[in-house]
Amino acid sequence: MASAESSRETSAGTLRNAFGNVLSFFILLLIGVLAFSIRLFSVIKYESVIHEFDPYFNYRVTQFLTKNGIYDFWNWFDDRTWYPLGRVIGGTVYPGLTLTAGTLWWLLNSLNIPLSVETVCVFTAPIFSAFASWATYLLTKEVKGTGAGLTAAVLLAMVPSYISRSVAGSYDNEAVAIFALIFTFYLYIKTLNTGSLFYATLNALAYFYMVCSWGGYTFIINLIPMHVLLCIVTGRYSSRLYIAYAPLVVLGTLLAALVPVVGFNAVMTSEHFASFLVFIIIHVVALVYYVKGILSPRMFKVAVTLVVSVGL
Question: Signal peptide: which range, if any (predicted)?
């Protein structure tokens, strides 16, 4: 009798969870539609055009990429920009936006959806605003829960400061970079909670996409070290923290150096020094915890005294 009641309770709980997951999915879908449609005001009221100076330059670059291919794009010297000096486009732009829109255009045309490059560029920002809302849901859910994640997603979909940078026709770096920024933080928290090298690798790849997309990648490479240092100072070091941070610095820096506009700046400029300093600190802390685990408390105190004396 008791086993029958427990099985009924278990099945009822499973049904409630399934219903909650389906409901959350449809709410997320509606949030994505809201984020996309709310940014189409300029297109509906006027027409589908690129507006502002930087978006039009990015549109010209994307046109060149789709017409001439990626090899010519990396080596393109544009004599119409920064006139009369000209500009080596492949080495002076963050290519993430251009490569993203060019890939979307190629995929759509491969599926026999013949959209123009201009149309793809106009709608890239609204599409990625939906992605950014979903990434916000994942980030907040990982930290607080499903309800908080849905609330955060709908707030991001409607916040005016983000709408101004992702409205249809505003084809600028932030169009894809905000999504990359939020998704990188989500994967960092996910790695921190799971201790998985798989998520750590995905985190480094997301950071690489952010580096490709916007110079604001320095927000990531300074905020995450601050969090790691705070965890160490407050005694919250763990192997999961090491796995979340060390691969990001090593693999992320190597990948960032592959972006021509960044290059050796990934290891030579001051905004990256904090990440390397914390990288050294976390290895020292990891060594201390390892030695503490293999020595007795008395021998550990002797070892610490010896190291401090030699250091002084």
Answer: none
Instruction: Give the domain-ending residue among 172, 202, 224.
Output: 172
Helix or strand run (H / E) with residue 224: helix 217-233
**Model confidence at 270: pLDDT above 90:** no
So what's the pLDDT on residue 12?
A: 60
Place of tokens 């992320």: 252
Residue 7 lies in a domain: no
Pair 27, 147: CB distance under 8 Å: no
| Pair 163, 209 in one domain | no
Whether the predicted pLDDT of 19 surpasses 80: no
Q: Which residues fall within 8 angstroms of residue 55, CB to CB, at 6 or more apart?
A: 121, 169, 170, 171, 172
Parent domain of 194: 175-312
User: DSSP 3-state assignment of 131?
Assistant: helix
In a domain, 59, yes or no: yes
* Structural domains in the chain (count): 2
Q: Kindly write down the DSSP assignment for every residue of 233-265, as one continuous string.
A: HTT---HHHHHHHHHHHHHHHHHHTTSTTTTTH
This prediction's pTM: 0.90
CB proximity list for 103: less than 8 A, separation 6 or greater: none
The pLDDT assigned to 16 comes to 72
Judge contact between 222 and 255, C-beta under 8 A: no
Contacts of 189 (CB under 8 A, 6+ apart): 139, 142, 143
Domain presence at residue 199: yes
C-alpha dihedral, 257 to 263 to 265 to 267, nearest 10°: 40
Which residue, 184, 268, 263, is CA-closest to 227?
A: 184
